Amino acid sequence: MLFMVIETFKNQDGKAVYRRFRDKGRQMPDGLAFVGSWVQADMGRCFQLMECDDVTLLQRWVAQWSDLIGFEVVPGAARDRAAERRPHPGSAASAGSGPSGRSGRVGSRTIPLRRRG
Q: What is the residue extent of each domain of the chain?
C-alpha cells in the first residue's frame, strides 16, 4: 500500500532533520520502501511517498523521527490500482455519497470522488 507522508518540521527546524538524515540516513525498517519526496518551496513541509504491506513498519519509522517532525499519513493506492477496485457504473456498489455520486475505496475508508472541471 502507498502512503503520502506529510512532514512538518517541529520548531521550523529543517536543519536538524537534514543533519540527522545526513548522519544516519532515513532509518527505515526492512520492508518499508521510499518511493520519492519533495520539499515545499519555503522548506515548511516535506512530502514523502512511502510503500509497505505492513503499516506497523511505517509506524516504527514515524516514531524514530517524531522528536523532530510532526506527521500526517494518508493511505492511498496508485491510480491504476484504484481504478481496478472501483465498481462499474450502474452496479449496486457504485452508488456513493460523494458529490458526483461515486466513491472510491482506500483501505477500509471510503473517500468521496469529485468530478474535475
A: 2-76, 79-112
* Main-chain phi, psi angles of 3, to 5 degrees: -135, 125
Q: How far apart are CA 44 and CA 55, in angstroms?
A: 26
DSSP for 32-87, written as a single string: -EEEEEEE-TTSSEEEEEEE-S-HHHHHHHHHHHTTTEEEEEEEE--HHHHHHHSP
DSSP single-letter state for residue 31: T
Find the mean pLDDT for residues 43-64. Answer: 93
pLDDT at 5 over 50: yes
Residue 8 has what DSSP assignment?
E
Q: Give the three-state DSSP class for 105.
A: strand
Place of cell 465498481: 87
| CATH code for the structural domain at 2-76 | 3.30.70
